[in-house]
Amino acid sequence: MSMESDVVLRNSLDAVDRFRTRVIAGIIFLFVTIVFALGWLMATAAARTGGSAGQTKILFTSAIAQMIFVAVCTVIIAFQITRMTKAILRAIELSPRRQSGDSR
């Protein structure tokens, strides 16, 4: 029985690691896609309106700064959730097994 619980625990920890990797890859992909889309939209708008290049650069820089901030916050939250999940699974592993006659 102990061997089965060890296998289940190891599989759970591996699943948490795989999920974290997927989340980070997804966030990076989404960020790059948004940067390209925003750049394309701003370039199209600047070409059609003939707006000043300085204003477009300021807008683009502020949008990038906001996206970087949101991406960093998302990664921090993902790492925190992963760390806490591992801590909970390790605590479950280290907790004493209840006896079948224990009513608590």
Describe this structure in words.
This protein has helices spanning 2-49, 53-94. The chain is mostly helical. The protein has one domain (2-94). Helix 1 (2-49) runs antiparallel to helix 2 (53-94).
What topology emerges from the helices and strands here?
Layout: H1 2-49, H2 53-94
Helix pairs in contact: 1-2
Gist of the model:
The protein is mainly alpha-helical. The mean pLDDT is 75. It has helices spanning 2-49, 53-94.
Offer a few descriptive terms.
single chain, 104 residues, 2 helices, 0% strand, rod-shaped
The whole-number mean of residue pLDDT values reads: 75
Count of helical regions? 2
Overall geometry:
rod-shaped
The number of E-state strands comes to 0
Unreliable residue stretches? none
Beta content? under 5%
The helix-strand sequence is HH
- Classify the secondary structure makeup into a structural class: mainly alpha
Distance separating the two termini:
21 Å
Number of domains: 1
Taking the sheet with the most strands, its summary is: none
Give the helix proportion (percent range): over 70%
C-alpha-based Rg, rounded: 24 Å
